[in-house]
Amino acid sequence: MTAVREGSGVLTESELRQVDAQWRAANYLSAGQIYLMDNPLLREPLTRDHIKPRLLGHWGTSPGLNFVYAHLNRAIVRRGTRALFVTGPGHGGPALLAHTWLEGSYSEAWPEVTRDVDGMRELFRQFSFPGGVPSHVAPEVPGSIHEGGELGYSLAHAYGAALDNPGLVVACVVGDGEAETGPLATSWHANKFVNPETDGAVLPILHLNGYKIANPTVLSRIAPAELDLLLRGYGYAPRYVEGDDPVAMHRAMAEVLDDVLGDLERIGTSQVRPMWPMIVLRSPKGWTGPATVDGLPVEGTWRSHQVPLPAVRDNPDHLRELESWLRSYRPEELFDAAGAPTADVTALIPRDTTRMGSSPHANGGMILRPLDLPDVGDYAARVPAPGTTTAEPTRVLGCYLREVFGRNAEQANFRLFGPDETASNRLDAVYQVTDKSWHAELLPEDEYLGPRGRVMEVLSEHLCQGWLEGYLLSGRHGLFSCYEAFVHIVDSMLNQHVKWLKVHRRIPWRRPVASLTYLLTSHVWRQDHNGFSHQDPGFVDHVANKSAEVVRTYFPPDTNTLLHVMDDCLRSRDSVNVVVAGKNETPNWLDDEQAALHCARGAGIWEWAGNEDGHEPDVVLACAGDAPTLEVLAAVTLLREHLPEVTVRVVNVVDLMRLQPAAEHPHGMTDAEFDALFTTDRPVLFAYHGYPWLIHRLAYRRANHHNLHVRGYIEKGTTTTPFDMLVLNNMDRFQLVIDVIDRVPGLARTAGQVRQRMVDARLRHHRWIREHGEDLPEVRDWSWPG
C-alpha cells in the first residue's frame, strides 16, 4: 500500500482523536449489524447464542464509507458545509445505518431504535433480519436518495440532486466496481451540464479498494498516471488520499477535503466551466477487519466483500476472532454506561438539519412546492365536432410546457429531460423560454444552448433517467421525453425507482415527491420510416409488472386528452406515469370539456362513434392509443357503409390500468363498471397500441374475457408506409371489419361478400404501396364523416 503524507496539520490533535473515535464507532456498529443479535456492547464474553443464525451483509466497503462520512461530518461542523451523501456502493448499508444512528437522525425517524444499549441491540438485530431493514441503503435509511443495490447510477443521481440547489454539496462515493458500468462511465460527463452559479456541486469520491465481489477492479489496477489522465479527461482535478495507516489517512483526508471544499466555494462564483475537484480514496477493502481467516488473506482482498468470518456460530476459532475484531475498536471508549455515543464520538457530528441523515434534500417532499400549472383549456385544440380538425399532439403539448417553464421560472423547480430528441418529439416550443443546458464549447451555428438552460439533453437514456430521479427525490419536478422503442434502455432503472417509491410510500416520515413521468412518442405506429429497430411498444408491458400502487399507463387518443393526462401527471405524487402519445398530425376527437371528462373516467363509451341508440350492441369495438383509435373509427365507417344493420359500441381506454380489477389496482374498475362498458356476452374486438397479450393479462378475470379478441403489435415491422405497419400486424380497419364478421353470430353467413371486399382491399393495398410508395388514397385521405 502506498505511503501517505501526514498533511500540513489541518487536523488538531483533539479533532484527530474525535474523527477517529467516530470512525471506530461506525466500524464497530457496522460489524455488529452483520453478526450480533444480542450482547451489543460485549459486556460479557461472546457466545454462539449472541450470533445471528444467518449472516448477511457487506463488510468490505463499509469502513471506507464510514471514513468518508466521518470526515464530511467534520467539514460540516467546521466549515458550515451543506451536504447530501450519495452512496454508490449502496450494499454498504451497515455504514449509513451506523452513522445515522450515531447522529440521532435514525432514532428520530424510527423512535423504537433508541440511542442507547437497547437501541443498539435493535439496530443490530433488525439488519438483514425478517421484519427488519434491508442490507442496502434503502428508503428506510434517513438521508438516502439512492439505494445502490444495482450499481451504476450514483453519480447521475448526485448530479440530479445538485441541479437548482445552489450551495449544496452532493458528496457521491463511487465504488471502483461501480465505475466499470456503462451508466457510471457516462455520468462523469454530467459536469458539463452544471452551472456553478445556479446549481449545487457534486464532489465525486472514487473509492478504490481493489476488488469487486470476486475479482479485482479495473481502475484499481491501471497505472496511477493513466487513471489521472482518464479523470482529467473527464474534466476533473483529482486529489489523492492513499494508504492504510489510520492516523496518516485521517490527516491526509482532512487536508484534501478542506482544499476541495474551498475549491468548490470559489467555483460557485465562476463564469466558465471549471475543472471540478474530486477525491480518489485508495484504502484496503475490509479495512480494520480480520487480516487473515483460516490462513488466507482477507483484509485488502475480495474475501472481505461480504462476511469475512462466515462460520462464527459453528467454528470456535472464528467466534474468538470475531470477538477480538470487535474489541479492537475499544467500544468501552466509544459508548457510555447507557450505550450512548461518548462526547468524543459526537463532537464532530453536526446538529439538526445539517446532519446528512436529516437533510431535507434527502426527503424531497419536505421542500417540494407545487408547480404553477396553466389552464389546459388555454391550449386545447378547437374541436367543433369529432374529427373535424387535426393537430400534432406533442407540438401542442410543447406550448403547454413552455408556459409551465415560464410560470415556474422564479422557483426554478421544473426541468425537461431527454436524449437529444426534444425537437424531434416536437416539444421545441419550450426553447422560446429556455435553452438546453450546456457548459462546453459553443459554436456560432449552435442553437438553444446556454449555461442557464433548463432542458437537459444528452444521448444517454441512463443519464437522463438518473438526473431526473435525483431531481425528483430531492424535491423538484420533471418530465422525461423519449422515443418509445429506446426507453427500454432504462428498464432496470425503472425497476429500482418503482421499488424505492413502493417502500417510500409506507414510511411515515417520508414526504410525497413528484411523480416520474415518461412521455413516449415517436412510437411504433409512426416509425415506418426508421424501420424495425425503432418499432417496440413493450415498455408498457414491463411497467405493468410493477407495483400497482405506483405505476400508471396512459394512451391519450388525441391532443386534448394528452393535455389533460399530462396536467394530471404533473400534479401527481409518488407514482411512475407512462404516457404514450403521437407527434404526427392526427384528428382531434374530443373538445376540451369532453377530454377532461374522458380522462377523469379513464375509459368510456364514445356515443357519437357508435350506433346503439338505446339498443344492445352486436359488437364492442374498443381501442387504446391514437393509431388504434383511428383504425377503429375507420372500421366503424366501413361497417356503416357495408353492414348498417350491425349495432356497434365504441369504447376508448385512455388509462390502461382501468382494465384491471379494482382490488388489484387503485385505478381499476369493479366488475359492474367493466361489464357496463364491455357487456357480459357480446364480442369485444380490442385494437391496442402495444403487444395484444397485455390486454388479456389485465382482463383475464372478467366475465366476458372469452369473447375478447385483441389486435395489436405482433413484432411485424420493417421500413414501409404507416398504414402497412397496421396491415402487417393485422390491426388495420379492413381486418377489424373482417373480425366483426367472423365473430358476430350470424354475420359469417350473410356478409360473405363484404368480407371478401375487405380481403381484397388488403391485397390491393400491398400492390399499391409497392408501386407508388405511399398508402392508398382512401386511407391517406380518410376523415371521420361526422
Automatic annotation (TrEMBL):
It is an enzyme of class 4 (lyase). InterPro entries: Phosphoketolase, THDP-binding, Transketo_C/PFOR_II, Xul5P/Fru6P_PKetolase, Xul5P/Fru6P_PKetolase_C, Xul5P/Fru6P_PKetolase_CS, Xul5P/Fru6P_PKetolase_N, Xul5P/Fru6P_PKetolase_ThDP_BS. One of its GO terms (biological process) is carbohydrate metabolic process. Residues 11-366 form the Xylulose 5-phosphate/Fructose 6-phosphate phosphoketolase N-terminal domain. The keyword Nuclease does not apply. Its cofactor is thiamine diphosphate. Keywords: Lyase, Thiamine pyrophosphate. The keyword Nucleus does not apply. GO terms for molecular function: aldehyde-lyase activity; magnesium ion binding. Residues 583-784 form the Xylulose 5-phosphate/Fructose 6-phosphate phosphoketolase C-terminal domain. Its EC number is 4.1.2.-. Belongs to the XFP family. PANTHER family: PHOSPHOKETOLASE-RELATED. NCBIfam families: PRK05261.1-2 (NF003617), PRK05261.1-4 (NF003619), PRK05261.1-6 (NF003621). HAMAP family: Phosphoketolase. This is Probable phosphoketolase.
